[in-house]
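Q: I'm building a small set of examples for a reading group on sequence design. Run inverse folding on the following structure and report the sequence directly after it, with nothing in between.
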């Protein structure tokens, strides 16, 4: 059950962050020394800390919706979501450390505070994807149809 609740919590969090990223007052203009982006629409720092742009917000929304669908579909889907999230965000954390890849070729900013946030997300998702015990109330094969 914990893995399903992780998918639910992650889904809600990412949908909210994706939506908040579109609110102009929630982002601050990037500092003068911030890396430039080719896709600079909506480029700013969410809550003054996390670099985002329109594409970054869309990715957050997609991740959030997938998490919510995984929660609804059951344990197996939630575990698969957690595993995929661990791999995806682990890769993003490493990419954010490499200056040439920190903007994903100018499309999505994944540098700065995003690096540690992506790393923590990957670690939490890895736990729920591979290590969290299967609930006795919901066997590993159960899924909603």
């Amino acid at each position: 059950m914990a893995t399903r609740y992780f998918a639910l919590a992650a889904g809600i969090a990412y949908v909210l962050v994706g939506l908040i990223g579109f609110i102009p007052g929630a982002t601050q203009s990037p500092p003068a020394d911030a890396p430039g982006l080719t896709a600079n629409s909506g480029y700013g720092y969410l809550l003054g800390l996390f670099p985002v742009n329109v594409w970054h917000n869309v990715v957050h929304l997609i991740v959030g919706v997938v998490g919510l669908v995984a929660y609804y579909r059951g344990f197996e889907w939630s575990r698969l979501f957690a595993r995929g999230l661990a791999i995806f965000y682990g890769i993003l954390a490493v990419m954010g450390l490499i200056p040439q890849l920190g903007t994903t070729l100018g499309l999505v900013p994944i540098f700065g505070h995003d690096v540690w946030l992506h790393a923590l997300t990957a670690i939490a998702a890895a736990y729920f994807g591979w290590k969290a015990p299967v609930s006795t109330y919901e066997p590993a094969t159960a899924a909603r149809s």
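The chain is about 55% helix and 5% strand.
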